Amino acid sequence: MKKIIFTGGGTAGHVTPNLAIIHQMDRSKWSIAYIGSYDGIERELVEKNNIPYFGIASGKLRRYFDMKNVTDLARISNGLRQARNILKKEKPDVVFSKGGFVTVPVVIAAYSLGIPVHLHESDLTPGLANRIAKRFTKTFYTSFAETAKHFPSEQTNVVGSPIRDDLLSGSRTQGLALTDFIKQKPVLLVMGGSLGAKAINEGIRQSLDDLLNTYQIIHICGKGHLDPALERKRGYKQYEYVHEELPHLMQAADIVVTRGGSNAIFEFLALQIPMLIIPLSRQSSRGDQILNAQTFVKNGYAHMLEEESMKDDALVKEIHALYANREPILTTMQQSKATHAVPLIIEQLNRI
């Protein structure tokens, strides 16, 4: 039996693609474990799936001067030592990395021990962690064709984004039952990512009465962002984060408002849910979500609204425009092959 260790963390977007691959691997041929941070969201998500988990120290990598860089470099160095010890003991045949700061010491440790690393990059341009990991990696996978130019061509496979198999098996009927919604009125799903999105949460709630005239709303607002005053609001259902019910809630949705994280938008593409993408601004990020959103708009899968433009009734107008344009978007989405990444990646891993 071969052994694989996955790594990735910081946000759910660095974890759920790994879980998508894990769930479709043949457990009679593969022993599977996971390395992540001590207390990141990856620990909860991985252990919930009964996968052996090893925690290591993790530090943030910054592109600018900050005194925290000094202490975080010490954490990364400690994480490298811990990852190396874990890998020496576990002796995996391969390490699969999904990105996030915690992966850097794991990838470097694997390289130092002669363990091949396979890496998936979701965004249009590689993040800092994956740019560092590039020199220690044997095989690359990308979601976007445009991303392949950032990696060695002979080692890179354009596969799309790994989609969780369970997301494709949800029931609209169960989703409506969970929310106590009716089938005669369209459902707007709002997701700001596993950590929430303050601007989107506030924009939706400020326009709630107006939006509820047309839509029923499922609002996944992130941990600590529930509004107790809205708990009994008819036609509005809020969640901090969703696990088992998520496939059913997604199937209930007619349109979605989302951030521009690659994994999320590829999931909505696979589920054929027209999107209004509100990417993180350049002031709050490296601009990767803006590029992701622009590519999806260009391909006819989504509308886009910049966070800085969420003034007055702009959000409501864009949501209405998306719903009015949903049929041509659905037609374009039906021609996509967004669900093929997992079998392509597993095929490569099985050759090891």
UniProtKB/TrEMBL annotation:
GO cellular component: plasma membrane
CDD domains registered for this protein in UniProt: GT28_MurG
Domain Glycosyl transferase family 28 C-terminal residue range list: 187-348
NCBIfam families, per database record: murG (TIGR01133), PRK12446.1 (NF009102)
Membrane topology label: Peripheral membrane protein
InterPro entries reported for this sequence: GlcNAc_MurG, Glyco_trans_28_C, GlycoTrans_28_N
Protein name stated in the entry: UDP-N-acetylglucosamine--N-acetylmuramyl-(pentapeptide) pyrophosphoryl-undecaprenol N-acetylglucosamine transferase
Main location: membrane
Family statement drawn from the similarity comment of this UniProt entry: Belongs to the glycosyltransferase 28 family. MurG subfamily.
GO biological process, one term: regulation of cell shape
Gene name per UniProt: murG
UniProt cross-references to PANTHER family, sorted A to Z: UDP-N-ACETYLGLUCOSAMINE--N-ACETYLMURAMYL-(PENTAPEPTIDE) PYROPHOSPHORYL-UNDECAPRENOL N-ACETYLGLUCOSAMINE TRANSFERASE (PTHR21015:SF27), UDP-N-ACETYLGLUCOSAMINE--N-ACETYLMURAMYL-(PENTAPEPTIDE) PYROPHOSPHORYL-UNDECAPRENOL N-ACETYLGLUCOSAMINE TRANSFERASE 1 (PTHR21015)
